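Repro:
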Amino acid sequence: MVAADVTVAEITEQLEGDEATRAWWWVPRTAEALRPTAELFALDGLAVDDVLSDREPPKLDTVGRTVLLIGALVSFDAGAEELRRDRVAVLATDRMLAVVADESAGAALTRRLAENTTVLSADGVAAGLHLLLDTMVHSETKTLLAMEDAADELTTSLFDDKPMNRADQLRAFRLRQSIAALRRVSAPMAEILLDLSGAAARAAADDDPLADLLHGGVIRRMQDVCDHAQHAAAETNTLRELLSSAYETNLALSDVHLNVIMKKLSAWAAIIAVPTLITGFLGMNVPYPGFGDGQGFLAGLTVMVLAVLTLFVLFKRKGWL
């Protein structure tokens, strides 16, 4: 049964009335809304702080028989080159599953659960936990694809031997920040999925809440999500290195273009210096061979033209012009 506006007290009553009943629900990520759910799952103060914190990285923990998972749904705003993170906390026991998230993330996650009620009925809370993890990892993969497209667009000019302009450099810097932020999500999530995949393969035990929750039916599905998480973490590192290389390449191209400009300026300065020197010599107010004579003027002009042409050809051959 899927219902709205059901209180935690009503859920507790249903669970106590029938031991075969299992329940999942969404809780807004506020202290007031979380309080009844935290009491039902017997969370301590540290666990509650972890659930409500905006800076807590993804983590996996157990509080008594309750499995606590902190994760995030991520998306990428290509226009602002900004990573958006919606914090998500999942509380799970063998009969209860609670999703603690803000409204946008909560709507996406509960919709995924509602679309798979048959799977939840058959495989219980473990299947719900798998669906939530799969949704979070899928958001990482989708975000990576958007970031790769943005990085490809930025680096296209480098293949044309053109350095990035100032606007593109700022975009590259913001994109690099977003990739670093994504790495702070994808790397811990990969480790979490590795732990959960291992727990699913272990035999159930009273002193092992993870194995007790996951053993059996979801082993293959957990391994599949684990593979996706590992791939997302590796791709994030690769994209980070690619953008770093592109940034260094852009600096190198800027240096090369600056050197080319300096060569051209130096070559033209040398060419212009020759007629300047000769005309300065001819402009002295002292007699010299050809002084006051048309032949002297022609001789000076010929020397200037020959010197300029010689330097021009020389610099041209050396690639300075």
